[in-house]
């Protein structure tokens, strides 16, 4: 099922603005990558089909995933994320530079709420909505999930919408996003918030390595509860 979703994601051309932008970036390239062939298409999820942990981001980076063809790969956000996953035992190596670099992820599935790189990293509401069915399909194809780590408020809000759509009973009032925020649903699934590992957050010290490590320690605890 995940392979079918991947094929549908890669072939998607629903959002004219995103198609134009991702392909323009792939043609013009960043000078540092001028000799590379850019992916220039939507980015499917990546990881372990038996995952108990879902990691949800915002969207691919123009010169990261849009270049390499793998989510959180080839940019500084990915450097932070995969290093943290390696320290937490979810990844076999701390770096992710290209699709053939040998990276393997265990017990985690990594994806983004919007599958195409958006201008200024800001997808429009209709673009978010156009991608929503892909997230619904991914959630349905990951039956072992016990926890979702949301990288940023956009992902947190998307996860709440996704879980409601999937029939999970949500708390009232809805849990608010915050770094290290946790919400345990009646279904047993745990929602965990994290600041996004963007340069804006990591360069300013708003997000530190210990803070990110604490999130994945919480995720490990949540998925191991009750022997799940």
How does this model look, in words?
With 228 residues, the protein is of the alpha/beta class. It has one domain: Uracil-DNA glycosylase-like domain (Uracil-DNA Glycosylase, subunit E), CATH 3.40.470. Helices cover 38% and strands 11% of the residues. It contains 8 helices and 6 strands. The protein has helices at residues 2-10, 16-28, 65-68, 76-87, 125-140, 153-165, 199-202, 209-224; strands at 46-47, 53-57, 108-112, 147-151, 182-184, 190-194. A 6-stranded mixed sheet has the order 1-3-2-4-6-5, with helices on both faces. A hairpin with a 5-residue loop joins strand 5 and strand 6 (190-194). Helix 4 (76-87) packs across helix 8 (209-224). The two termini are 22 Å apart. The model has no long low-confidence stretch (mean pLDDT 96).
Please report which band the strand proportion falls in: under 5%, 5-15%, 15-25%, 25-35%, 35-45% or over 45%. Answer: 5-15%
Number of DSSP helical runs: 8
Shape: globular
Count of domain modules: 1
Number of strand segments: 6
Question: Which topology does CATH recognise?
Answer: Uracil-DNA Glycosylase, subunit E
Q: Any idea what the radius of gyration is?
A: 16 Å
Query: Can you identify the CATH class?
Result: Alpha Beta
Low-pLDDT runs of 5+ residues are: none
**Mean pLDDT across residues:** 96
CATH architecture group name:
3-Layer(aba) Sandwich
Largest sheet features:
6 strands, mixed
Query: Level of helix content?
Result: 25-40%
Strand order of the largest sheet: 1-3-2-4-6-5
Report how far the terminal alpha carbons are from each other: 22 Å
State the CATH superfamily name.
Uracil-DNA glycosylase-like domain
Q: List the helices and strands in order.
A: HHEEHHEHEHEEHH
Query: SS-based structural class?
Result: alpha/beta
């Amino acid at each position: 099922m995940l392979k079918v979703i991947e094929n549908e994601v890669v072939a998607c051309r629903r959002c004219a603005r995103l198609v134009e932008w991702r392909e323009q970036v792939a043609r013009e390239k960043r000078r540092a990558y001028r000799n590379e062939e850019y992916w220039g298409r939507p980015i499917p999820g990546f990881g372990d089909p038996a995952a108990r942990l879902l990691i949800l981001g915002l969207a691919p980076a123009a010169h990261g995933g849009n270049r390499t063809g793998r989510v959180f790969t080839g940019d500084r956000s990915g450097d932070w994320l995969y290093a943290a996953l390696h320290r937490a035992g979810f990844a076999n190596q701390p770096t992710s530079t290209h699709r053939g670099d040998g990276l393997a992820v265990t017990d985690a599935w990594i994806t983004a709420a919007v599958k195409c790189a958006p201008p200024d990293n800001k997808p429009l509401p209709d673009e978010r909505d156009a991608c929503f069915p892909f997230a619904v399909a991914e959630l349905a194809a990951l039956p072992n999930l016990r926890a979702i780590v949301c990288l940023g408020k956009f992902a947190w809000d998307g996860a709440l919408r996704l879980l409601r759509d999937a029939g999970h009973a949500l708390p009232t009032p809805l849990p608010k996003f915050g770094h290290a925020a946790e919400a345990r649903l009646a279904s047993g699934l745990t929602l965990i918030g994290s600041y996004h590992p963007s340069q804006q957050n990591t360069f300013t010290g708003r997000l530190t390595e210990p803070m990110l490590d604490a999130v994945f320690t919480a995720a490990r605890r949540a998925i191991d509860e009750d022997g799940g």
